[in-house]
Amino acid sequence: MKYFKNAVVIGMLSIAPGIMFSQVRPMDVMLSDYQYPYEVHLINLKSQNNDLKMAYMDVRPKTSNGKIIMLLHGKNFNGAYWEQTAKDLSDKGFRVIIPDQIGFGKSSKPQNYQFSFSQLAENTKAILDELKIDQTIVLGHSMGGMVATRFTLLYPERVQKLILENPIGLEDYKTFAAYQTIDQAYQSELKNTAETYKNYQLKFYYDNKWKSEYQPWLDLIAGWALHPDYPKVAWDAALTSDMIYNQPVCYEFKNIKVPTLLIIGTRDRTAIGKDRAPKELQPKMGQYQELGKKTQKEIAGSKLVEIENVGHLPHIEVYPKFFNALYDFIK
């Protein structure tokens, strides 16, 4: 499986048996010299007194089945990691729209911006409006699941079906973890390195098991941390962490009326602010084998597909199982 077109890795260094650590080249704030798997388009947004550019890919099938699906990325990712998903959906006749949210990927990184899931949903709708798309299937992974949830609640008439792949926000992190100011979050972000990013992913995503297919997505965010532009990226990362902590969607799942599928890797333990929670509460956070079932009960008529012994990224870790569950729901 080919995940990215241009080489980010310029050398490999073993730091522990079975674990590789990349030497990566610096990446600027807009990922200017990183080639996405499909052509990147930009729309101009005037938002909160900012002139912004929002990037997206529009993957059109050779033979259309008349259906459109929009793929929404997670917080530590961008639209490029949907490459294989987009290819296979396109081969089956779907038109695939893949935005980079403002603050992520090849989209603008505003430094004076009030991030909210409602604002991200509005920005996402602007792409559909630009493309004159009235309705779409919406798939959101991780933070993208929170964006997809808010989008569906705000614009239910635009959503044919909703798929949530290991979404964060299935619980209210404020009820577990202490508040962290944006300034504190920013200082924490500035300390990130390839090693700290990898340790976080190993702990919460992959259960200390590393595979080569995870490496490109680590290398991208690690490359940012090596560039002089990184403070801009880190500031937006702090703002979006604050958004996730302070804007839970879990209390509104009961209001979702569109057909919904939950794809849940049950080994996932991702939880925002877990390190700030009391030690006795930390083991109770991010229990996806329980959160998936709880959320399925809250969304009337929804379907749950649990993938045992899989972490935060089913569409990377066990792609065939992920795609089969997705396609069975949308075909």
TrEMBL record:
<dbReference type="InterPro" id="IPR050266">
    <property type="entry name" value="AB_hydrolase_sf"/>
</dbReference>
<dbReference type="Pfam" id="PF00561">
    <property type="entry name" value="Abhydrolase_1"/>
</dbReference>
<dbReference type="GO" id="GO:0046464">
    <property type="term" value="P:acylglycerol catabolic process"/>
</dbReference>
<keyword id="KW-0378">Hydrolase</keyword>
<dbReference type="InterPro" id="IPR000073">
    <property type="entry name" value="AB_hydrolase_1"/>
</dbReference>
<keyword id="KW-0012">Acyltransferase</keyword>
<dbReference type="GO" id="GO:0047372">
    <property type="term" value="F:monoacylglycerol lipase activity"/>
</dbReference>
<dbReference type="GO" id="GO:0016020">
    <property type="term" value="C:membrane"/>
</dbReference>
<dbReference type="InterPro" id="IPR000639">
    <property type="entry name" value="Epox_hydrolase-like"/>
</dbReference>
<keyword id="KW-0808">Transferase</keyword>
<dbReference type="GO" id="GO:0016746">
    <property type="term" value="F:acyltransferase activity"/>
</dbReference>
<dbReference type="InterPro" id="IPR029058">
    <property type="entry name" value="AB_hydrolase_fold"/>
</dbReference>
<protein>
    <submittedName>
        <fullName>Putative hydrolase or acyltransferase of alpha/beta superfamily</fullName>
    </submittedName>
</protein>
<feature type="domain" description="AB hydrolase-1">
    <location>
        <begin position="68"/>
        <end position="270"/>
    </location>
</feature>
